[in-house]
Specification:
7 strands; 7-stranded parallel β-sheet; 220 residues; Alpha/beta knot
Length: 220
C-alpha cells in the first residue's frame, strides 16, 4: 500500500521519508511524567523529532500533556505520542508496559547510585524518564526505575529546564548509538515501511478515502 500512497505525494517528500526513516529509532525512547507547561512539552517533542526518537511516552497523572503548536513546529506530526492516563497510578502502568517491551527504565536525576549520561549502558533498549518541572520524578518513578543518570552541571543552579535536560540527554545517547556498530538501534525494515506509510497518510489529502479505495481494490 505504501507505493500507492507514494503516488499521491511529491518526489521531495518521498526522498525525505526514505532518508529520515533510516535515522529513526525505538532503541531509545523518552518518558515524561506529569509535565504541565505547554512550551516545555512542545520543546521536548521537537527535540525527539530532531534526534530521531520515534516514540514519546507521556504519563498524565494530575496534568494533561498539551504541547504549544507554535513551538513544536509541526514535530508532533512525525513523533508517535503514547499517553498513559486511564489508571489510578499511571506512572506504574507506564513503567510496567515499557519493561514488558524490554526497556530498561533510567531515571534522569541525581542519585546515590547514578552514573553520568556518558557512562550509561545503551546495549539494552532504554527509556529515559523525566519528571515534572517543579518537583521532578515521583517516588513511584524512582522506586521502579532500573537505574539513574545525571547530566553534567557546573554552576550554582541545581537543575536544567526539563526541555533542556531532554535535549542534552538525547544529544549524548543518540551520538553514542550512531558511533557504536555493535548496537542494532535502527528500526526493522517492516517497522520502517509501516512508519513511512503512516507519514504518507499524514500528507495525502483525504488519506482516509484513498485508503478505503485501495482496500476495496485489494479485496477484489
Amino acid at each position: 500500500m505504501l507505493s500507492q500512497f507514494y503516488e499521491h505525494i511529491s518526489e521531495n517528500k518521498k526522498e525525505l521519508f526514505e532518508s529520515i526513516v533510516l535515522d529513526r529509532t525505538r532503541h531509545v525512547t523518552v518518558v515524561l511524567e506529569n509535565l504541565f507547561q505547554p512550551h516545555n512539552a512542545a520543546a521536548v517533542v521537537r527535540s525527539c523529532d530532531c534526534f530521531g526518537i520515534q516514540d514519546l511516552h507521556v504519563i498524565e497523572n494530575e496534568n494533561i500533556y498539551e504541547p504549544n503548536k507554535e513551538i513544536d513546529m509541526g514535530s508532533s506530526k512525525w513523533v508517535d505520542t503514547i499517553k498513559y492516563n486511564s489508571e489510578e497510578e499511571n506512572t506504574a502502568a507506564a513503567i510496567e508496559d515499557l519493561k514488558s517491551k524490554g526497556y530498561q527504565i533510567i531515571a534522569t536525576t541525581p542519585h546515590t547510585n547514578d552514573c553520568s549520561i556518558e557512562e550509561l549502558d545503551l546495549s539494552k533498549p532504554t527509556a529515559l524518564l523525566f519528571g515534572t518541572e517543579s518537583t521532578g520524578l515521583t517516588k513511584t518513578a524512582l522506586d521502579n526505575s532500573d537505574g539513574y543518570v545525571r547530566l553534567p552541571m557546573y554552576g550554582f543552579t541545581e537543575s536544567y529546564n526539563i526541555s533542556v535536560s531532554v535535549a542534552l540527554a538525547l544529544f549524548s545517547v543518540t551520538q553514542r548509538l550512531r558511533e557504536d556498530e555493535s548496537i542494532n538501534w535502527q528500526m526493522s525494515k517492516e517497522e520502517q515501511t509501516a512508519l513511512k506509510l503512516e507519514w504518507a497518510k499524514k500528507v495525502v489529502k483525504r488519506s482516509d478515502l484513498v485508503e478505503k479505495i485501495l482496500n476495496e481494490r485489494f479485496d477484489q
